[in-house]
Amino acid sequence: MILNPTAAMGVAGKRIPEVRTLLRGRNIDFDLIETTGRGHATELAGAAADEGYAVVVAAGGDGTANEVINGLMLSKSPPVFGILAIGRGNDFAYGAGIPSDLAVCVDLLADAEPKPLDVGRVTGGDYPAGRYFGNGIGVGFDTIVGLEAARMKRVHGFMAYVLGALKTLAIYPEAPSVTLSFNGTVIERKSHQISIMNGKRMGGTFFMAPKADDDDGLFNLCMADRMTRRQMIALMIRYTKGTQEGHPLVTTAKAPRYEIVASEGGLVVHADGETICVNGTSIVVECIPEALRILARHPDGRGA
Length: 304
What we know:
Layout lengths: L1 E2 L7 H4 L1 H10 L7 E2 L5 H11 L4 E6 L1 H11 L7 E6 L5 H6 L5 H10 L2 E11 L2 E7 L2 E5 H10 L7 H14 L5 E6 L2 E13 L21 E7 L3 H13 L8 E6 L1 E8 L2 E5 L2 E7 L1 E14 L9
Parallel strand pairs: 1-2, 1-3, 3-4
Antiparallel strand pairs: 5-6, 5-15, 7-9, 7-13, 8-9, 8-12, 9-10, 10-11, 12-15, 13-14
Helix pairs in contact: 3-4, 7-8
């Protein structure tokens, strides 16, 4: 178990005694290691795979899960992946069918059957060799909102994203001209926001792909054209309900691979909340079908 004690603004670290008690109560044999800094979870996950652990659990939020995924993907035969959703947003866990209730998370570790999990790889920006992700990619508006939220020292969680969105709306950067290619389709237009999703939700409350499945070998696209502030606010309200499909300024699709090139302006990109670039020229996003196995609820209810 790789636990990030700084997740949820340090609340995760305070829950370690509770975690240990619950695990022992379900007779789970475990080693718990706390991370000490950025990238440490990736190193620990890779080492655990090499040492032959049967299951590697990420205990924290989306950032912790992302680092552990990147570590497991270095192994030719990765262990089963588990999650304790004790972070702030837990968007990846939500999409994978893992609840935020800690006791139920431990029950899944004890009883659930592993199910396949697709993993994404984004290439470009600060990661020319590629970086893996579990939940999704954001380009444009939502990435800028996340960067603004991360800069806030006194406000955290959902409210930080709200204030970050308000600040981004006040600045309202110009939409870059992009060329998006997938499934033989090429779209050329100015776009304020592009999400490519393996999971369902971003930012704790924005359902960018409410119909996404994380084991179908495809990623869901949600692309918003250039729009006014008023139009963006109205669309954000739709995102909170997952009702944006069919909107005249929104393009949705499913594909295993996407390529985005900025012909004018730069790409601001994140993967699972981790910055990929702030002024990129192009990225490629690919789905790696069933790359991992995860202890989570199955669609038919197994593991519930």
